[in-house]
Amino acid sequence: MENQQAVVTGTPPVVTEGLDNKLDLRKKARPHEMLIQGFLFFSGAVSILTSIAIVIVLGNEALLFFQTPTWAEVRDETDAIVSLSAEITEDTTSLPLAENKGQFLKAGQKIRLDNEIMQIVAVEGDVLTVERGLEDTTKVAHQPQTHIRLEGDNISLVEFLTGTSWQPHIGEFGVLALVSATLTISFIAMFVALPLGVGVAIYLSEYASEGSRNKIKPILEILAGVPTVVYGYFALTFITPILQGILGKETLGIYNMLSAGIVMGIMILPTVASMSEDALRAVPRALREASYGLGSTKLETSTKVVLPAGISGVVAAFILGMSRAVGETMIVAIAAGARPFFSFNPFEAAETMTGHIARISTGDLPRTTIDYNSLFAIGLTLFLVTLVLNIISRQVSTWLREEYD
Amino acid sequence: MSVSENTTASTTQYLPNEEQLQKNIARRNRQAKFWEYVFLASIILAIVSLLMLFFSIIRQTFSYVVVYNQVNPDTLADKPLEELSSDELTAVIITFYQSDANDLRTLVFNEVLGLSSSDQQAIRDRERAKETVTVKEIAGDKNKEYPAESAEKSIIRLTVPEYAQFIQLNFDDDALYDFVVEYVVQPLIVGSWPLDEYLLDRDSIDADIIQIEDQLREINDDPSIEVSEPKLRSWLQWHLIVDTIDLSRPEDAGLRTAILGSLMMISITILVALPLGVGAAIYLEEYAQGGWMERLIQTNIDNLAGVPSIIYGILGLALFVRILDDITQGRTILSAALTMALLILPVIIINAQEAIRSVPDSLRQASYGIGSTKWQTVWNHVLPNAMPGILTGTILAISRAFGETAVLVVVGSITRITVDPSGPLSRYTVLPLQIYALITQPQAQFRNVAAAGILLLLAILLSLNAAAVILRNRFSKRAV
Amino acid sequence: MQFSNVEDILNMQRTRSLLLALLAVTLVVALVAAPNRGTKTVQAQEPGTLLEVAAAAGNFTTLLTAVEAAGLTETLNGEGPFTIFAPSDEVFAALPAETVAALLADPALLTSILTYHVVPGNLLAADVVALDGQQAVTVQGEGVNVAVVDDAVVLDGNAKVVTADLTASNGVIHQIDGILVPLADVDPLLTEGDIVTAGSSTVFPLTTRMAEAFEAAGYVDTVTVDSVGTGAGFERFCVGGESDISNASRPIKQEEADQCATINRTVLEFRVGTDALAVVVNPALECVSDLSIAQLAQIFSATVTNWNEINPDCGDIPIALFSPGTDSGTFDYFVEAVFDEDEAPILAANPQLSEDDNVLVQGVEGDPGGIGYFGYAYYIANAGALKILNIEGVEPTAATAESNEYPLSRPLYIYSAAEIVAEKAQVADFVNFYLTNVNEAVIGVGYFPASNAALSVAKLNLYIALHNAMM
Predict the structure, then answer these.
(1) Do A363 and C229 touch (CB under 8 A)?
(2) Do C404 and C432 have their domain in common?
(3) How far is A361 from chain B (nearest CA, A)?
(4) What is the H or E stretch that residue C87 is in?
(5) C196 lies in which domain range?
(6) Cβ–Cβ gap C215/B109 under 8 Å
(7) What does the domain layout of chain A look like in residue ranges?
(8) Under a CB-based contact definition with an 8 Å cutoff, are residues C368 and C317 in contact?
(9) For a disulfide at B376, which of A295, B105, B372, C58, Cβ 3.0-4.6 Å?
């Protein structure tokens, strides 16, 4: 108790009265310590700054994404694209269209050719009179067959969250196409990692001798330390061919969610196992003794007493594992395929949120495109999903700690 | 005995009889045993997964390959190459490089004189300044023989026969033969099969070889082309570490640039993240008063530790690559290192906090007792005692950064770079990124290179982790 | 420099060269033929002067006009003897109008180029062949590299002698199929400074190969080659100004060139080869060997989803689509050629998209109903794993690609800017080296070589830019 007292007071008490005047024991100003303390505080604040930066960067660019109007090609009754019929220079204000295509446009509409935005002043037959170079776009010449794009609505949050097709180039922004693959793969991963992980945890905490425990744990740590790009390699060059051998190449393409999910399960196995093991070991010995005292076998003690007592830790491990799976990138980028596709069929190839971000950014997106902004909208979604999962996981494991403290 | 029998008898109506009880216990024990095996099986399965993972890499690192000679040796001379004399081999070189004096010069520089790229740059700079860099000077420097008649000529302006003579003078017959094979005959690996496939499925490989031969014949319009017999090749070779990447010849592809890039990036990352991380840990453990600010920071750090790495990549792309472009010069090692520093910061902080927390309070009190200030206490007593723990955390963080790919996929993007990074502002690639690029190459041989690269990467990571474990064990023994 | 679409340029060229030719004929007839008529009849057996022989041959009219414009008529009618390597009219016809205009406007430039086609002395075909591997020093001062490749004489790597030994009284004329450009030989060892290139994944292997060749020939600094797609490549080149050279698998668009102009870059275009898109299927799919463009459109818009709808013999094999990513020039080109530039149908069909062609190769290889398309190079590198289809009954070969008979063939370019080559000597050196040596590498990479005429145009563009920079 005394010890703690001293820590709380921090500096030792300074006594000045009754001492020789030559010895000045008053607290000296130590500017460099202030400086150091300032630096220490700054170090702590960096993490806050990082979070703020993440939120601002993701939020800001994602906001741009939701403020961008879509520009859809104007189509005639046969679904063919309406385009310029002849070249126009940067100065002309009349746009010639092919025969009978004038009817698909009206005065007052905002249109875009290449990157230039214009407003239609009048439509006479198949010739549009326009105002050129609106919204700070530059007037440039346009080739014949340039598509006429019509301003559409902004991308709505509802469309983003409920649409099931992700094709930015044709104005479809349904993030569910990506989320479905993320969920499918994560569930396959958990389907592998949870039973295995809990099995490993029970064995380690209830059955294994200290000696074998010390041998097995490092193996799990190796699994945890393998870089994800290696797991991707493993999935693509080893697991997928084996699965194709079992299921047939007709059923399972080279890129599929199954293989990625299984390997991801192996990847998060150590996380689930070690968190669950910690939870089980945290269950007080008294509970076990009581159970044995009643004549329970080891199995009954483990599954009917220890596991229920430590269940919140296991649940926390499950959720954290899920969050890892959702955020994992390289395995899916290498093995799961490269098309956004709304499907929960594990034999299909589909792109996850992370896989999409990785693919899009390797292409080095031009900054001004909707693709670039969409990156941040997906990133924000991903960030929020994992954040919520992490918070739940930590909350659940706190309950456990409170239970037996 | 009789007592117990009595007891049993008197309670029969509530408890199962002896037989039933024994049966029941046996059943329960059997069940317990069965599940024990199930739990054991989970562990075995985990270990098997790890073994399969290693196996999937080993089988590609050591593969069976077939080779095709790009220049048919029979067309070079009227005798088999092995029987040619030194002069005849030199003549072969002269004929072959007749119109490529520059290429032969580069070979002389690299293979005979062993000039580094900075040596070559120095020669270039002097020649650009109209100075003549003589054969005598350079060859003398490197203790190499040179043709006496060209001693005073510029080393960069010799004729093909003069360069060839240079090679002949410095190479014995065997070395000269090897040189001709490598740079004139130019054998090329055209097929590669994993170790186990070769051992278990020869037939399909034979069929593949016939197909490869047919293709080569068609492409080169030469029906006489034949490939060699399959032979075992280890892709984990010294040149993998010392050579630069070559995306057209897998057998020449090395990872030097990537390894150096990784090392340089990690150094900067640690330089940034270590002081910040330890500083934050000290602040939270020693200075914090438990106010809302500290709680916020603490919660925040825990949350940051769970943010997917690709999000850090996006942050790095927007912040370091785009917004701070003036400082970081875009996609440079500095941008990557700063992004990576943010990524590993939570790992360092959390580990350092734990280490600081485990320093016994008595040490602090003793320090205060002799009149130390807070900082003196932290600096002289807490930090030295927490050091092993902090180092363990740092090593773990380094190993995380070493293997991290997703972040760099977003902030990096160099697909081919052969020049070593020269500073924080140079363009770069790193080992896992290079491996990723290799995996996505279509030819099977690049998977072999990738596998060898992965072995290298794993070796580095495992030794880092082993170091951390050893350090941690020592530390925990001392703390007890 | 204006870049309208290809057809336009061609039209303009035709008109321009027709005019030039007409002008030339008039001039030549008036200036050369008339005063010499008398002597010619007397020496019926003796050939006339170089210019007379050229005029008589009938296909050097543009050259003669240029000789006139440069004021070299007198020299070439003089004693000599001279050997002229004469580009025929077709070669000049391939020049873009701007290039012709730039040449005719600058007599110094024109003279330097024309005199580079003239070697003092009377070098008959046999004498030229004897120069294999050496240089012939021209009147201009620089030497022309002579090489004998496959029994033909090739000058400076990209002009072949097509008709030799048109003898004249004061020399000899050899007809060539490209324009010789007096760019000095590059010694890559003496080239200093880094070079940054980015762009098309299709051109990537070619530029990589040329970078490796540049290094093999002594270059000791860095060429970076980023494979990011044609569009993103131009973004880096014209907006960010990050790259020195932009690799492209389509001509630059007007708006991209305009953007370049705003950051003070005048685009220079260099044609380096021809690519054919290979449409490939899994080799197990034996029932299909030829598709029409219409069928391709059906397949890639998911109008048909099973191979038995294409050919009933196929059996029930679902079609799996693989396509290069939307950022790649390959995708743009496919959409242009198959879907009339309308991206919607192919994207709605939801193919597997990847910027990385290798991913597609692996995909088609791994899926029995897989079909994909990409540059011919990737097919060559993976020929065993894939089966290539004929399109509209035409097999993709060098001949069908070059003649445009194969419907899915397209040109490959590298782009730089006049300001860049003027400022960074290393970029000029690399482009020069690239253009001189590309034909040796291009087939190995899996593309079809650009014609000598196209390469001369590219070199000429570089030369003019460097020449203007010196002024």
Answers:
(1) yes
(2) no
(3) 5
(4) strand C82-87
(5) 188-273+412-470
(6) no
(7) 70-152, 176-404
(8) yes
(9) B372
Tally of domains in chain C: 3
Assigned domain for C181 exists: no
Phi, psi of C86 (to 5 degrees): -105, 115
What's the CATH code of the domain at C432? 3.40.190.10
DSSP A84: B
Residue B131 burial class via C-beta count within 10 angstroms: exposed 0-12, middle 13-18, buried 19 and up: exposed
Looking at the fold, whether B26 and B124 belong to one and the same domain comes out as no
Question: C274 φ, ψ to 5°?
Answer: -130, 135
What is the token pair recorded at B142?
Answer: 């490197």
Is B168 a member of any domain? Answer: yes
End-to-end CA distance of chain C: 18
Contacts of B387 by beta carbon, 8 Å cutoff, 6+ apart:
B355
Beta-carbon separation of A226 and B296 below 8 A: no
Cβ contacts of C326 within 8 Å, gap of 6 or more: A169, C343, C347, C353
Distance separating alpha carbons of residues A253 and A347, to the nearest angstrom:
7
In angstroms, rounded to a whole number, what is the distance separating the alpha carbons of residues B205 and B194? 10
Rg (CA), chain C: 25
Distances (CA, A) of B164 to B90, B100, B105, B141, C170: 6, 12, 9, 20, 42
Instruction: Supply the range of the domain harboring residue B84.
Output: 71-185
Alpha-carbon distances of A199 from A195, A279, A310, B52, rounded to whole Å: 6, 13, 14, 20
In a domain, C182, yes or no: no
| CA separation for the pair C200, C413 (Å, rounded) | 9
CA distance A258 to A267: 14
A234 touches chain B (CB under 8 A): yes
Q: Are C188 and C124 in contact (CB under 8 A)?
A: no
The pTM assigned to this predicted structure is 0.77
C438 within 8 A of C290, measured Cβ to Cβ: no
Tens digit of each residue's pLDDT, chain C (471 residues): 343 444 444 444 444 444 444 444 444 443 333 344 334 344 445 678 888 888 888 888 888 888 888 888 888 887 778 888 998 888 888 788 888 888 878 888 888 888 898 888 888 888 888 888 788 888 888 888 888 877 888 888 778 888 888 888 888 899 988 888 888 888 899 999 989 998 887 888 899 889 989 988 989 888 888 877 788 889 889 988 889 999 998 889 888 888 899 999 999 999 898 888 889 999 888 889 899 999 999 999 888 889 988 888 888 888 989 988 776 667 878 888 888 777 778 888 888 887 667 778 888 888 888 999 987 867 776 777 788 999 998 988 877 886 678 888 888 899 999 999 999 999 999 999 999 888 888 877 778 888 777 888 888 889 999 888 877
**Minimal C-alpha gap between A140 and chain C (Å):** 7
Closest in C133, C228, C358 to B441, CB measured: C358
Interchain CB distance below 8 Å, A379 and B309: no
- Which CATH number does A176-404 carry? 1.10.3720.10
Distances (CA, A) of C112 to B151, C105, C464: 38, 13, 11
Cα separation, A403 vs A279, in Å, equals 12
Domains held by chain B: number: 3
CA distance A279 to chain B (A): 17
The answer to whether C264 and C419 are in contact (CB under 8 A) is yes
Chains touching chain A through at least 3 C-beta pairs below 8 angstroms are B, C
Cβ contact C254:C338 at 8 Å: no
Residues in chain B: 480
Which residue in chain B is spatially nearest to C135 when comparing CA positions? B99
Cα–Cα dist C59/C89, whole Å: 5
C305, C319 Cβ separation under 8 angstroms: yes
Strands C352-354 and C448-449 turn out to be unpaired
